[in-house]
## 1
Amino acid sequence: MTFLSFLISGLSLGSVYAIIALGYTMVYGIAKMLNFAHGDVIMVGAYVCFFATTRWDLPPTVGVLLAMVVCTVLGVLIERLAYKPLRSASSLAVIITAIGVSYFLQNAAQLLWTSNPKVFTSVVGNSLIKLFDGRLTISVIAIITITACIVIMAALTWFTGKTKMGKAMRACSEDKGAAQLMGIDVNFTISVTFAIGSALAAIAGVLLCSAYPTLMPTTGAMPGIKAFTAAVFGGIGSIPGAMIGGLLLGIIEIFGKGYISTQLSDAIVFAVLIITLLVKPAGLLGKQTTEKV
Amino acid sequence: MKIMGKASRSKVITYGFVIAAFVIVQLLKSSGNISSSLQGQLVPICAYVVMAISLNLTVGVLGELSLGHAGFMSVGAFTGVVACISLESIIPFTILRMTVSIIIGAFSAGVAGTLIGIPVLRLEGDYLAIVTLAFGEIIKNITNCLYVGVDKAGLHVNFLTDATSLNLSEGGRVIIDGPMGISGITKLSTFTMGFALIMVTLFIVLNLIDSRSGRAIMALRDNRIAAESVGIHVTKYKLMAFATSAALAGAAGTLYAMNYSTIIASKFGFNTSILILVFVVLGGLGNIRGSIIAATVLTILPEMLRQFNNYRMVIYAIVLILIMLATNDDNLKGFLSNLRNRLLPSNLRKGKKGAENG
Amino acid sequence: MKKIFCVFISFVLIIGLMSGCGGSDSASSGDGNATGKNEEPVAVAFKLGGTGPLTGGAAIYGNAAKNGAQIAVEEINAQGGIQFELKYEDDEHDAEKAVNAYNKLKDWGIQISLGSVTSTPGVATSAETFSDRIFALTPSASATAVIEGKDNVYQMCFADPNQGSASAQYIVDKKLGTKIAVIYKNDDVYSKGIYNTFASKAKELNLEIVSTTTFTEDSQTDFSVQLANAKSNGADLIFLPMYYTPASLILQQAKSIGYAPKYFGVDGMDGILTLENFDTSLAEGVMLLTPFNADSTDERTVSFVKKYKELFNETPNQFAADGYDCVYAYKEALETAGCTPDMSAAEICEKMVEIFPDITFDGLTGEGVTWAATGEVSKSPKGMVIENGAYVGMD
C-alpha cells in the first residue's frame, strides 16, 4: 500500500514536471535553445490566473484562458525583443540572454506583486478520490494534470507531424536555410513555436499551483530546472520523451525520499539522471545522431 | 585565435593589465581614496576572476558547456577551510597556512574534477551541460549532509547524522555542521593573495593554451573528428582541461570562503554556476582578458545600482540583456562599428579582424 | 566586436571606480529612506542601518523587518527628541551580498546597526561589525553563531537553541503529544538549528521522536513521503521548525491524505494566517511559540498593525514587530546612555555594550525584555494556538 501511495504521489509530482517539460522541449526542438526563462513564464501565468479568479472573481476557465493569452503575448514579445536579434549568434549568447530574461521576470514580478506568498485556489477544486476504505487517496488535480499531459502530448505530436505549420516547424529545426528557400517564413514559424510554448507554460503554471498552491515570484524557478532535467532525461526535443522523463523524475524523487533518505533526495534524482545519460547519451527517447565527417 | 596569433604580446598585455589594475587599486587604498564598498569587494572579485578564467578554459577553450562550476568551488571552499582550521596549530604563519589551504582546496577540487570528468566528458553538448548541473547539485546536497570536526585525535567525518555523533573529545571543534556550513572562519584572504592567485591562474591557463596540449584541446573544440584522426587522444586532453579548470575553481573557492566568517553549501548552487557562466560568455569565449574584465564589472555593477533600491535587480537584468544584444546583434553591431569608425582614427583598429569569432 | 565591448566595459569600470571613490561623501546626503517629516539637519539624527533580503526568495522577511523599523523611526522622529535616519540595504539572503551591503552602509556613515535580518548573512555581517566596532542589534538573525564571541552584537529574537528546547519543554509540560514527528529543512541554518536542540532536549525529557524527515529548498513542494512516514509511525504531533510557506503546504497535504495530527510550530510559523487567500481552517489547532501576535488587543500592537496596514497594505508579521522593537530598544538605550548623533560609531558602540545588559525593554514582542552580556535576549515565548482563524494564548 505504501508502494502504491508513493507511486501515486510520484505520478502527481511527475505530471507537473512533465507538463512543464513539454513546453521546454517544444521550444528546444524548433529553436534549439535552452529557454531558461520558461519557468518564469509559468510563474507569470499562475499569477494572472490567481488575480483573475481570486481578485476579480472570474470563473476558472476564463482565468486559465486569460493566463494563456497573457503568456502567449509575453512569450512572443520576449522572443521578438530578446531572442530574435540573436538568431545568428552563438547558442551560449542566447542562453545568457534567456537567463537575463528570467532575472527580469522574477524581479519585475516582485515589484508588481510583492514577495509575499499567495495561496493559489485550485482551478478544479481540492476533491479527493478515496480507494480501499480511504487508505489510498488520489487527488483530482493529479488525474487532471496527467490527462492534460497526455492530451497535450498527443496534440503536439499530431500538430508537428500532420499540419502544415507543424511541418514548417520541423523543417526549421532541421535546416533553417533550406526551409527558407522552400518558402517557409522562418521567423514567423519560430514565433509561433514560442507562442505555443508559452501558452503551454500558462497551463503548466495553473496546474503546478493547483497541485502545490504556493505562489511567489520564485515559484517557477526550481520546477523550471527540474523540468529542464526531465526534458533532457527523456531526450530533449522529443515530445513523448518529455512526458516520460517528467513522470519518471517525479517517481524517482518520491521513491528516493520514501525508500532511501529524505536528506539525499536531490542527489538521488540527479544521480539517476547521470547514470541514465551515461547509458543512453541522448536521453531515453532521444535520437542518437551520428556525426558525419 | 588572437591568443595563438600574437601569443606572447597578448600574454604580456594581459599580465600587464592585471598588474596595473593591482597597482592602481593598491595606490588608491594606501591613499585612502577607495570606498569601503569597493574595498570589501576586492577579494570576491579576485575569486570570481579566477572562477571565470577557469570556466573559460572549459567553455571557451575546450568548448564544452559546464553548468556546475560552482560545485568545484564548493569542494575547494570546504576542504580549504577545513584544512586551514585543522592546520591552525601546526602552521601558525598565516600566509603559509593560507597557501597550503589553497593548494589543498585546489587539489581536492582537481580530484573531484577528474572523477567527474571521466564519465561526463563522453557526453556532448546540452547533455554534458545537464550532467555537470547534476553533479553541482549532488555536491551541494552531499555537503549539506556532511559533518566534520577536529580534535586532538585528528579529523572526524560523519555523514547524514549530526554534529554530536562526531564524538569529539574535549576541546574539539565542529568545522562543517551540515546545512549550517562553517561558521566562525577567521578572515585570512587579502587582496594581495587574490592578486597572486590571479597571476598564478593566468600563468597556468595562458601557458596551457599556448602549449602543445592547448593546441590539441582547441583542435578538439574546432573539429573533434579531424583532431581524432590525426591522433589526438580525446579523453586525455579533454580531461586535462576539465581537471585544471576544476582545480583552479577549487583554489578560488578557498580564497572566497576565507574572506567571510561563514559559508554554507547552498551558496554554491546553480545560480552561482550561472553567474560565472555569464562572466565567461560576456567576456568572450576563449578571451581570458575579457573574462577578467567581465567578472570585475559584473561583480561591481549590482553594487553600483544600489541607489535604485528595489529596481536594482530589474535594471541589472535589463543591462545584461542589452549587453548581450549589443555584442551579438548584427544591426546594433553595424551601428556601433559605424560609430567607432567615425570616432576613432583608423590606425587604432587595424589587424583585429581575426579575433571576431574567438 | 570584442573591442567595442572592452571599450564599453572599461568605461563602465572607470565610472565605477570614480563613483566608488567618491562614495563616502556623496552617499551621506543619500536617498534617506525615512528621515521623518521634520526637516532637521542630518547631523542631528543617528544613522541607523541594516541589511536584509529585499529581493529574491526570502524577500518577505527582509521587507517586513525594514517596514517595521521604518514605522518606528517615523514615530520616534515625529515625537522630537532622538532622531534616526534609517537605511536598509539588500543582501539577497547571501553572506557575500550582505557584507557588500554592510560596506555600502559604512560608506554612508552608519553609526548603529540593525545587523542582518536572516541568519547566514547575519553571521557574516556580525563578524564585520565586531571588527569595525559598530554596535549591532539584529531583529531576527537567530543563529547562535551570530552573537557567539562578539560582545557588541545583540539579538531581538530568541536564539534558535532557545526555541528548540523551549518547544520540547512546552510539549512535555502541557502533555501535548507522546509520539513526535519532526520535519525540518536540511539546507537552512534556522530550521536545522532549532531541530538540533529540540532533538537533544527531547532525548533529555524522554520525549519520543518517532519520525524525522527533511526537505530542501529544491524539493519543498511535495511532502507526501514525509507525512506518510509520520503517519505510519503513529506520530500524534508534528513539530515544524520552519517558516510558514512550506508549513502551509504541509498542512494542506496532510489534510488531503486524511491525516490530522497536532502541529507545533516556532516563530517562523507566525504569518501563516496572513497568507493571502489561505484557507485558515487548515491551520485550526496549530500551536506555535511566538513573541508577537498581530491580533493582540493591547494599544501599541493595535496602533502598529493599523499603521502597517495603511502603509504597506499587509498584516505585519513577527519580523516587522522585531524590526519595530529594535528601533525602540535603541531609542531607550541611547537615551539612557546619553549618546548624541555627533559621537562616532565606536564611541556609541562602547556605551551600548555597557548599557545593553542593564536595560529592560517593553516592546511588541515582549514585556520586560532583558539581554545577557553575550547578546542573547531573554523574553518569554508565548504559546499560542490558532482557533477560528486567530491566535489564542495557550496559558
## 2
Amino acid sequence: MDTEILARIQFAFTIAFHYIYPPLSIGIGLIMVITEGLYLKTGNKHYEVLTRFWLKIFAITFGIGVATGIIMEFEFGTNWAVYSRYVGDIFGSALAAEGLFAFSLESTFLGILLFGWNRVSPKVHFISAIGVFLGSMFSAVWIVVANSWQQTPAGYHIVGEGLNARAEVTDFWAMVFNPSSVDRIIHVWQGAFLAGAFLVLSVHAYYLLKGRYVEISKKAFKIALGVATIISLTQLVSGHSSADGVAENQPAKLAAMEGHYDKSAPANLYLFGWVDNKNQDVTGIALPGGLSFLVHQDFEAPITGLNAFPVEDRPGQVNAVFQFYHIMISIGMFFIALTLYASYLWWRGQLFDKIWLLQIFTFSVILPQIANQLGWFAAEMGRQPWIVYGHLRTSQGFSQEVSSNQILFSLILFLVIYSILFLLFLYSMNKKIKNGPYDEAKNPLEII
Amino acid sequence: MGHMETFLGIDYPTLWYLVVGLLFSGYAILEGFDYGAGAWHLFLRKDLSRRIAINAIGPLWDANQVWLVIGGGALFAGFPVMYATMLSSMYIPFMLFLMLLVLRSSAIKFRSAEEMKWWRKTWDIIYFTSNVLIAFLLGVVLGNVLQGFEIGENFSYKGGIFFAFLSPYALMTGFTTLSLFMTQGAIFLLLKTEGRLHARLTLLLKKGMIFFITSFAITSLYTLVFLPGVTDKFKEQPVFFILPILAFLAVANVPRLVSKKKYFNALVFSSLTMSFLLMLVAFQLYPVLLPSTIDPKYSVTIHNAASSQKSLGIMLTIVVIGAPLLAGYFLFLYKTFHGKVKLDDTSY
C-alpha cells in the first residue's frame, strides 16, 4: 500500500480511538461538577457518594484520553511533515495555547481531584473539579479551532512556493474565530456532554433495573436526564448553524452530505438513502427541496452541487459522507424523542415506572459514541481532497521521507496496543460499575 | 529575511529558542524523576515498596507530563520546520517513544487494580521496561540531534530509516540520559519514602551515581574527540567553559547533600546538573537546531525553521500570560502533596 493511504489509515485509527475518551471526560466532568456542587450546597452525602463514584470512572477515561492524545500531538510531525511545516505558523499557536491554558489546568488539578480528598478542604476540592472540567473544555476549544482553520482558513496569507509554501498568520483573532470555529466548538462540546450524560443514564438505569443503589441512582439519573434533554434540543440548533456554515464555506462538503450532484438546482433533504457515486444517483426517502429550504428558507432555491467542482476537487467518498452524516442526524433526532418522552414521564412522576425505557437507556450509551465518531468522519472526509481547504491537498501533506514499511510497523503496533488498551478499558469500567459506588451489604445507605 | 522584531535586544527566534529550552529542561527535571523512579521499579523487591514508589509520583506525573505537551507544542509552534523534520526523520524512535508512553500510563493506572500475582508482575515488567526505554530513547534522540542528520534540500531526510538512529554516539547519550534520570529518580524516591525502603534506595542511588559518572565521562570524551565543531565552539567563546564546570560542581554536591539527608537540596542540585548539561547542548547547537551532515547549508536553524515574526510575537504573549498560571498550578499541587507517601483508598 502507498504511504499516503497508510498515513491516513493510521491517523484515522489513532484519532478515532482517542476520540472515545475526551468527550466522555468532558461529559462526566460536567455531571461531577454538578453532583459535587450539590453536595457542597446541600450537605447530602448521596451526592458525595455519586461524585466519588463518577470520579473513579472519570479517572479511567481521562487517563486513556491523555495517553492517546499525546500521540496525536506528535503524529502531525511524524506522518504529516509537509503539512506541519505548512500550517505550523498557525496551527502551532493554537496547540501552544492548548498546552499552556488548558492542558496544564486540567492535568495539575487532576492530581488534587483524584488524590486530594484528605489533603484539601471540600471547597478546594470542588474548585479543583471545576478546574479540571474547564481545562478539558478549553482543550476542546483550541483543538477544534485548529481543525476549523483547516476547514475554513482565515486570518492568514500564503508565503513561498512549492514545498516551501506555508501559511502565516496575519490576524490572530480572525484565525481563532474563523468562520466555522464557534459553531463547531459548541457542537463538539454538546456531543461531549451527551456522551457523558448518556453514560451516567446508562449505568444508573442498569442499577435501577437491578434494584441496586436505587436512591442515589434516581438522583443521578434525573441530573443526567436534565443535561441530556437540554443538550439534545440545543444540539439541533448548533448542528443546523454548523450546516449553514458548511453551505456557505464548504459547498462541496454540503453537496456530498446530501448526495447533491446538479451544478445548481434545488436540493433534497434525505431521511435515509444510498448514493451511487458512479451514476450520480441517490436512492432513498427525501423531502424534495428540503435542503434548499434549510439553507435558504425556499424549497426552490438552487444549491451548488458536486458537478460544479472539478472531479479532483470533490470528496472521493460521497456515499460514506452521506451515510455518516445521516446516521449522526438520526441519532440526534432519536435523542430528542427519547429525552423529551422521559422528561414528560418525570413531570408526570412516572419516570422510573417503565422497565423498557430504562432498558433503552441502558443500551443507549453507545449512540453518542457512534454519533460523535461518524460526525467527525463526515466532517473530515467531506473536507477531502484538501488537508487545508482550498490550499493544500492531503496527497501533498504527508511525510515524503517516511516509508510505507515504517508506517506499517507503527500501525500494527498501534493496533495491538490499542486493542489491549480498549479491553482493559472495558474490563475496568465493567468492574467499577459491577462493584458500584459502595458496598451495599456492608454499608446501608442510611449510615453513609 | 526582513525586519527582525526584538525584545530586550534579543530577536524573537532566539527568545523562542530559550522558551523551548526552558520547557525541555522542565520536562527533563520533572519527568526525569518520574521516569527515573520507574527505572528502579524492578530493583524494589516487595509489592508494597513498588506501590509506594508508584504513588510517590501518583498525583504528580500527569501534571509533569504537561511539560512534554507544552514543549512539543512550543517546538511545533515556533519552529515548525524543526518539529516536522526531526519527527519524520526519527520516525521509528519517536513512534516507539510514544507507544512506550501509552504503556507506561497504562501500567500506572492498571497495575494495582488487581491482586493477582501474574497481573502485577506483568505490569511491573511493562512499567520498568517502558520507563527505562523512554529515558534511553530521549537520550538517543538527543545524541542524533547533536551528531546531525543526513538532511538534503527542502529539509528532506536522506538517511537510513529503521536502525540508523542507533549510532554508537546515540547509544552513549542514551545511557547517559538514563543514568541521569535514574539518579534524579532515586533522590526523588528518597524524599518520598521512609524505613527499609528508604535505606535500600540510599544504596541504589550510589549505584545510580556511579552509572551516571561512568557514562557521562565516556560520552564527554567521545564528544570532544569525535564530534567536529565542539572544541571550536569553546575556542570561540571560552566563557562557556563555565557550563561543564558548573555541571560537574552540581553533580559533585549531590552525594554530600544525600549523606546529610538533605534530599530536597540534593534533588535541586541534580536538577541543576540537568539544566547545565542542556544549556551546554543549547550552546553547542545555537543557532542551529538540527545540523545537516550532508552540507551545513541544509541545516535546520532557528532562522529558517522559525514561524513568522507575527506568530512568534503572539506566542511570546501567550507564554507571558500562561507561564505564571502554570507556575501557580504547580506550586499549589506540589504543596498539597508535600511529604512522605501515605497510601489510602484512593491510591494506585
